[in-house]
Amino acid sequence: MFEGNTLSLIRLDNDFAEIKFDSQSGSVNKFNEETLGDLRSALDSLKAEQGIKGLLLSSGKSVFVVGADITEFKEMFSAPKADFIAAAQIANGLFSEIEDLPYPSVAAINGFALGGGFEICLACDCRVISSKAAVGLPETGLGIIPGWGGTVRLPRLIGYTAAVQWIVSGAQQKPKAAQQSGAVDIIAEPEELRAQSLATLQEMVDGTREYQARRIQKNSPLSMSAAEIDATSANYRAAIVGKVGNHYPAQLIAVDLVAGAAGLGRDEAIKAENEAFYNITRTPQARALVGLFLNDQYVVKQAKNRGKAHKPAPINMAGVIGAGIMGGGIAYQNAIRGYNVVMKDIAEPALDLGIQEASKLLAKSVKRGKFDEPKAAQILTKIKPTLADSDIASCDMLVEAVVELEAVKKQVLPAVESQLAPSAIITSNTSTISITRLAESLQRPENFCGMHFFNPVHAMPLVEVIRGEKTSDATVAAVCAYALGLGKKPIVVNDCPGFLVNRVLFAMLFGLEMMLTEGADFQQIDKVMEGWGLPMGPAYLMDVIGIDTINHCYPVMIDGLPERFKKTADVWPTESIFNANRLGQKNGLGYYRYELNEKGKPGKAVDPEVIGMLENLYGEAHAVDADEIIDRLMIAMAMEMIHCLEEGVVASPAEADMSLVYGVGFPAFRGGVCRWMDETGLQEICDRADKYMSISELYRPTDKLRAMAANGETLY
Question: Which residues are catalytic?
């Protein structure tokens, strides 16, 4: 009947027709412009065909349809309003045509049906789902809302409250939960999905399964009273604002949209959805979050492309040198991802601590129901703690994670190298020490690079892969492949003081130090920056990292980049905090005082001792304009990122932004520091930077940035 590049229309026995999504140019099915065109042709052919009694929607892939093609969003986001709404109405019109067919329809859902993929299922009269599948409307996670009828059909199927919860959370729903809510009708085992779907379609044709009443329900206003809807939506709005503030408007718009359209019929409600969909795509948050999604794909693609070019050998045995909390975390991550790993140390207590850390993390996974205790015990057996040098001889990939002292690492690394095969790769989990200098101690520096994990290892997605002067491309490719295997996002950077994340982060911390020496209040700065979107203010962040660690890193930045990283006072606040033996959360005293709360986590409290200490050094603290606080910290960070881009420390704004989002929790709704600069405008950034150049060279825009600003260019 019809054969397209993305789907086909086939006539089956019993006068049924089947639209099968099966992209010939991709590994999964997506709703892109081509798919919608093929669907238009298929429906035209279907309507012209005589004697059809029922329609089956299925997939020839391992998933149903994963949603819209997000690579097409850039053009969509820049389209004039009339063009945007006309394009949205194309999909909506097609889905409504399926819903209005003069015979029943069934969606056979395998794998994932997400976003538009689930919205077309909602247009069908019945949904049969594989027991291994999942459905959902994840659009709010991209800063947008469902735009192809999801905010209209889902509430009419499962009720206002459940639908808003699905849409606001963006979470994938498993078959049982989806069936209990009424979003799907039948759960079938994968091998029975097709047969069950066809049987269900036959039941509707025969009249033994009713479907017309549900069609009326989906075309009609919601049955809730206006007072009920208003009260429920007000509660949802309050909960969203309480959790994320106004930083994520898509969730708030979705709540208002579903409430506002509750009294409308289907077609009028879809028009309201089109309008809201257009409005949300004009927000910087939507641009940022969609940009992050694309950046994430780009980072993974870059790592995979390196692997394709150099084809790294499989890793039969991984190794970690240096146990303790960090080494144990790295060993755990290896084991949980299926790698056998040797954890080597010179002290039994350190090995015990490493195993305790891995055991603790496994116990948490068991408690969350991720797997059972026998499985956890099996995973733990993949970690081999040892004091014997000879046990690392079989390692293909090794991570050195000993104490952060160059002299110690330069002793450990050659000793390790002598135990390994010539093809083995050694990495260092250093956060500050030059990879090029460490490589001087090795016979095979081409097989060595940095592999900077972020703490806690199991939770932080970023791994900085640091290329030294003699690191080979094959080594970088192998380490990127290994990082992907560990479930991490590898971003390749060139060796420099602080590498990428810490170099840019420390520019912000230097901005904080300068403000405090001028009498600013660190508590106010923390509150302003947390309100701006950072997960924790800079003073609080230093306590979490460790005041001793910060104090150790400052000289690296000052010695390595003296033209910009300069102290503006003889003694900086964090040095004073450190000299008072305040190490942050690790000893309960830093900028704040910490005591364990009822959940066993460190609770933060103001400490008058610190207030007095800073007053004695810099005078009584005074309030600073919030915009100045933001500029003093963010522009220092932004200018250092510009230097990193221009020097080739990082290859692209996409990788630069993802490094901060992955590594330090830079607010996702701002999309990263490069995206923030673009949204603010490069000329505006330069103008703000010029206000503070007399304070520090950290604020001076580069000549290239000024030229880009003058030409109206952007980083992306």
Answer: 452
